[in-house]
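Reopening this ticket.

The earlier resolution said the output was attached, but the attachment link was broken on my side. Pasting everything inline this time so it's all in one place.
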Amino acid sequence: MPDIQAAATPATRNRPTTVPAVGRSGVLRRASPWVGAVIAVVIVVVAVAMLGPSSYDRLSRGYPGMLTSMLSAVLRLTADVTGGLTTGGLAAAVFLTPRRSRTVIDNHRDLAIVRTAATVWLVAAVLLVPVDAADASGQPVTKLLTPGAIGYLVQASYLPGAWIVVACIAVAILVAAYLVRSWVSTLLLTGIGVIGLLAPVLVTQVLVGPNHDFGGDAAMFAVPALGIWTGATAAGARRWRVSRPGTATIRRHRILALTGWITWTVGSIIIAAVELAGTPPWEAPTGVLFAAQLLLVAAVAGPILLRRSWFATPTAPAVLLAVLLVAAAIGVVMTRIPPPVYFVPTDGQQLFLGYQVDTPLTPITLWTAGRVNILFLVIAIAGIATYAAAVIRLRKRGDHWSNGRTSAWMLGWASVIITTSSGVGPYSSASFAVHMGLHMSLNMLGPLLLVLGGPITLFLRATTAHRRDAFAGPHEWLVAVTHSKLLRVTYNPVYVLAVFVGSYYCIYLTPFFDWAMRYHWAHQAMTLHYLAIGYVFYALIIGVDAPPRPLPHIGKLGLVLAAMPFHAFFGVVVMTSDTLLAGTYFQYLDIPWIGSLAHDQYVAGGVAWAAGELPLIVVVIALVTQWAKQDARQAKRIDRHADRGLDDDHEQYNAMLSKLTTRDTTAPAQRADPTRSTGPGSTNEHERADDRRALTVTDHREQP
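Inline output:
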């Protein structure tokens, strides 16, 4: 088959054509997804029947019966698949669907698959709340009919709570899919859908045992990658049933599929290594299932994705969808089998952290006892690579980009990597003082450098703007985000200040801190929050990129000065508090070298005080310097324009005064005094006109 990309002309590059569904290929295209769905259900049913009570016995848990076990597995398969269809359908509408209006979503056509999938996702999630509560507790589902049983069983396990979160997300997406028309809002829904995909995964097998921090981070990439790939493939198969997509659409589907395949494969390998815990793959059912899943997808999807001509056929998305459904079924079977990591002896540190921190804390330890933080390492590498590619593209066009901005961006991400993957990262979960240092660095130092890089300005200059009748690309997407109401709300100074300073009080001075420190994913989310809000705060003050509503320098200075006392007060509160913050968590860890938890908290308060004030003082100095330099540049520009005769401000000012003189001359302002002349040639009127002429300036530098 000839290469469609090469054969396409500019006029037909993204023009859909009708595809007749006749012959063997048409039957294969229509039947493949249904065959894949049937095989997926059969795999789950047969596996659950064969396992019986064995998995429950290995965990010393009561067997809830075949009905409860089967319901849990089939509903889990339904939820996983429809969650992927929902989120992937949203991603396809955002990035892969051509439309006349590039910032408006046709929710009737583009989100049809999303509404259907979200409805089933919601039903499955709601049913899984009681079913998984009974299954995890070893009770038959009929036990739920006992008064008070549902509430008790739901609280006894993490998974029912995760399904409640999923149900809420599914409701939000379902309602929004009927109402939303904004591209940015649909992008936001896609992000919310990703959270729904992750919720039931992060509280199960990847949360247990040694090195579960690696497994949790890998799952944060692998699970959304597989789900979005599945949903986008379903959207592509649905589109092929109507007409042949344009070349640009096919190319984008292929890029997303390749990205999803690679991300899911790498993430699954890391998760498999964590769950096997050193056990050879062929000696554990978990290893065999991982291998079968990876090899199946690689054997079928690999050749289709690696050859453009094969991917651009009507049967390709249908076959891919069938394979992905079977892969999802294998994943569900793995959740029914306890992996070897469950049976590795662990202590309190490995239970909560996934690793041990037996070496006493010293300055040398903070540099040498590093542990890779996969989440922030990948984010940092992606940020550096994308920025570098944009700079290279800009300079190839002959455009200039400041080396200082590039250095600031690179140093910002380098500080993030060093902070999270050096000894500071692993020890931040063991010591409150180190934890406070990590968050202050990610909230103050990293964002302070990143905003000086001006990434939005760079990407807008480096990306290509397309014609209005062309397929929207990164340039149009970035413009849509920067002009959105969501960004205006996000950059509202009052909101930013409240979140920037309020986060410390709401997180550390409430029970939330003790709860969040127990789970790796919650700690990662907390760290990501501090990095994001720090970026927005400093972007408003000294950022290179112009915010939606730029603040005057006096407003920026006021924003910084308003934040400073709150940071100082927070540090004092932590230092003087008689209550141990997250005391239960740190007592569970029971790390001998920490000694007094009260002293560790006192040091943490000092770190918060000093590390919070010093960067803000530096920002104040930099802001005042920027203010002075801007005024100096403006004065020089005005003088230069005046010397060239380009500045007519003083002429406009004189003209304004002349108009005022004419208006006052003709106005009946002196009718109240009949003894005085009010005619246009009166002495009084001439005197007032002379007074106004005396005030007229002849040089703009003399203007008040």
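Reporter confirms the inline version is readable. The radius of gyration is 32 Å. Residues 597-643 form the longest helix (47 residues).
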